[in-house]
Automatic annotation (TrEMBL):
Compartments where located: Membrane
Main location class: membrane
Pfam families, alphabetized: Sulfate_transp
Residues annotated as domain SLC26A/SulP transporter: 12-402
Keyword field: Membrane, Transmembrane, Transmembrane helix
Organism encoding this protein: Dyadobacter sandarakinus
UniProt-recorded name of the protein: SulP family inorganic anion transporter
């Protein structure tokens, strides 16, 4: 089965319900990340603007069928520090616009090719770690302890707490109403995945996420009427800014301070945002493509251009910077999305709901939304993923596990960096072992050892070949056969020539080279 991604409207029966689920996931994340990034309740709408732009603008321009863009938790610390450095939100918006311009240029210069060099073990480790992080971070919200913002991914939090202490606090300060709502929501979401539920006409078109959100609202209203001590209020509910008039609504939008163009700190922030947002996007693109049931490939250069235009638009309207984000993208995939219409639809609902029904949205308990995110986390970190990686051997499993541990104990980008270092070590180790074939023959006149070089011998093989030559037995004959090689790097040729001229005579080793012609020999002088 395949999907023609150019026929966007032929899959609306899949994309519209999926877009609705992504919207329900995105709404609290946009608000939570905005509050964490700015520390100001009057700038909450900046997260909604970024979500709208990520859905409509980036969704329309992107080549990713299922990727969803919006404000990212990975940029929270950068945004906070930038606001302190620049002194105003409007100057920061200028940096967002400039970051977008840099991303567009990067895409046009084909810098998206970087995305193809992330090892598969690291990407899968990232997915598993995000799944575990979601579970650990959403348990407090499911218990009714909402001190930390929804969408936080870092181990250490701004309030001095961390992922582990938050679990303790969740049990200590739990809310009975929240536990009931989240428990019922989880059970229903599990049932919605069962085949017998999908055979029922009513539940064939209603997403499970929408059903549990509506039920959560009704349960909380019931608690308010009959069990006031269980009622969830204020911080335990969605808190979307509500405008009293049309003018007040448009007042939520801000404009960049173009007079800050002379401030050199703006350029520093713009470059930082462009680099980090692009890396997060490329990582998410790789992860989303791996989760895509139709195994489509996203053009990474086009994605950088789309994200850049999205950041230019978001900055001009008063929004936070956007990146492609894996949590919303995986929710899109789990909900059955087929094309980027689901992304565009989620952005459209964000816009319309913010304009016309913000008051009603503020009845939604965070406990209901936590249950949805707990299910997303579980699906990202299933046991089958771990057993599958274990079967691939230590060269895949060790970088996979270390990436998970590193992300859980630090944050996404630091964890990915640590995982990359470990994965590259195994790649280099494997590469060095396969640079040549070692054959030893024993004759009356002494040992004859053949080193048959592989087709491509690069500087990465320099260490292993040098060590092999150093460990040859004295008095042997060695035949270094490069006749099968298409290319032998200068560094390797230099090692062979130095060994033949200097080390071998001192150890009474006879050296014969084959397929290493005069051109290479001249190049070694």
């Amino acid at each position: 089965m395949s999907v023609d991604k150019n026929k966007l409207f032929s899959n609306l029966k899949y994309d519209l319900p999926s877009g609705l689920v992504v919207y329900l996931v995105a709404l609290p994340l946009c608000l939570g990340i905005a509050l964490a990034s700015t520390g100001r309740s009057d700038l909450l709408f900046s997260g909604i603007i970024a979500g709208i732009v990520g859905g409509i603008v980036v969704g329309a321009l992107s080549g990713s069928a299922l990727g969803v863009a919006g404000p990212a938790a990975g940029l929270v610390v950068i945004v906070l520090n930038a606001l302190d450095t620049l002194g105003s939100f409007e100057a920061f918006l200028l940096a967002v616009v400039m970051a977008g311009i840099l991303q567009v240029l990067a895409g046009l210069l084909k810098a998206g090719v970087i995305g193809y060099y992330f090892p598969s073990a690291v990407i899968k480790g990232m997915l598993a770690a995000i799944g575990i992080t979601l579970i650990l971070k959403e348990i407090p919200h499911a218990f009714g302890y909402d001190a930390d913002f929804m969408g936080d991914e870092a181990f250490n939090q701004k309030d001095g707490q961390n992922t582990i202490t938050e679990l303790y606090n969740a049990v200590r300060y739990s809310s009975t109403g929240a536990i009931i709502i989240s428990a019922i929501s989880l059970v229903l979401l599990i049932l919605f995945d069962k085949p017998f539920m999908k055979r029922m006409q009513l539940f064939r078109f209603i997403p499970g996420a929408l059903f549990v959100v509506l039920l959560g609202v009704l349960l909380n209203l019931f608690f308010g009427a009959f069990m006031p001590e269980w009622t969830l209020k204020n911080d335990h509910l969605v808190q979307l800014p509500v405008a009293g008039s049309v003018n007040e609504f448009f007042g939520f939008f801000k404009s960049p301070d173009f007079s800050a163009i002379t401030n050199t700190n703006v350029y520093t922030v713009a470059v930082t945002l462009a680099i980090v947002a692009s890396l997060e996007t490329l990582l998410s693109v790789e992860a989303t493509d791996k989760l895509d049931p139709f195994k489509r490939s996203t053009p990474t250069n086009r994605e950088l251009v789309a994200q850049g235009i999205g950041n230019i638009t978001s900055g001009l309207l008063g929004g936070l910077p956007v990146t492609q984000v894996i949590v919303r993208s995986s929710a899109n995939i789990d909900s059955g999305g087929r094309t980027r219409m689901s992304t565009i639809f989620h952005g459209t609902i964000l816009l319309l709901s913010a304009m016309f029904i913000p008051w009603y949205l503020n009845f939604i308990p965070l406990a209901s939304l936590a249950a949805i995110l707990l299910m997303v986390g579980y699906k990202l970190s299933k046991v089958s993923l771990y057993t599958g990686m274990y079967k691939l051997g230590k060269e895949q499993f060790i970088p996979f596990i270390i990436t998970i541990v590193a992300i859980l104990s630090t944050d996404l980008l630091k964890g990915i960096g640590i995982g990359m270092v470990v994965a590259i070590y195994f790649i280099l180790s494997k590469n060095s072992r396969h640079s040549y074939h070692y054959v030893k023959e024993t004759h009356r006149d002494g040992d004859v050892i053949r080193l048959i070089l592989s087709e491509e011998v690069t500087f990465l093989n320099k260490g292993s070949i040098s060590a092999t030559l150093d460990n040859l037995p004295d008095g042997c004959t060695v035949i270094i056969d490069g006749s099968r090689s298409i290319d032998i790097d200068y560094d390797v040729l230099e090692i062979i020539q130095e060994f033949r001229r200097h080390a071998a005579p001192l150890r009474n080793i006879a050296v014969e080279t084959r397929g290493i012609g005069e051109t290479e020999a001249v190049a070694m002088h």
